[in-house]
Queue: 3 jobs
Job 1
Amino acid sequence: MQKNIQTKSDYLAVLAAQAAAEKLGFETIVIDVGEVIGITDFFVVTSCNNRRHMETIREEIEASLLEVEKIKPLRIEGKESDQWMLIDYGIFVVHIFDREWRSFYNLERLWLDQPTLNWEK
């Protein structure tokens, strides 16, 4: 089930997804997990081709959110990883995966019953 932007947290998660797309992140999805997790509202999941691409996506997400909404991540994990990086903004979390590792972890499978946000322009 897909839903449209309705709240500020929806908007911020969509902004992150759009920033990832700007730098050619692919298979991007915004999953509404707020009802089942309680510690965050959304997972933004995107894929990249390699380590440099992952870093470029992270930089674009951070720059976009800082420029538009003046917010910075609470923490970043996996900065040294070639497979996965997490950017935690509190109300949403961005996962940037190498294609192979995304397939291995398959986060979408865990949240199949949760709605997704319509984020594409």
Job 2
Amino acid sequence: MKSKYSQLFSPLTVKNMTIKNRIAMMPMGTNYGEQNGEMSFLHINYYRQRAMGGTGLIIVENANVDYPSGSQWNHPD
């Protein structure tokens, strides 16, 4: 498969950033956030596993920066 899709597994440089291959993971809602929208250890482990699997570019899901007004979800307090 590497010979058929050789460009897929080759590095890609955009300005000052080099990605080790052209495999990208788009953002997906895991619902692993804490009640207040902060990242959790579940998030960290989830993305670590994808990176170890060889994904060149990982685009993470949304995160909350100002709870509750910045929250995507309505959590009862």
Job 3
Amino acid sequence: MQADNHRRAYWRKNIRLTGSLMLLWFGVTFGVSYYARELNFDFFGWPFSFWMAAQGSPLIYVAMIAFYARSMERLDVAHGFDESDV
């Protein structure tokens, strides 16, 4: 019974992390394009909305992937699902 609760806690944290990152992804992807006209200030010499579409969003996506991988590795170790023993 305790192992079952342990697995549920693992998946609850996994789903919470995934959901949070999906909300961030949605905000970065659609939020910037929806408010593109309001984001009309210069950023490094380019309009901010153009810069976010061309450079900022992909950088945020890569950072999200790295954060997810690091967080899941820590979660795996904390719950005994790490693959270092294999």
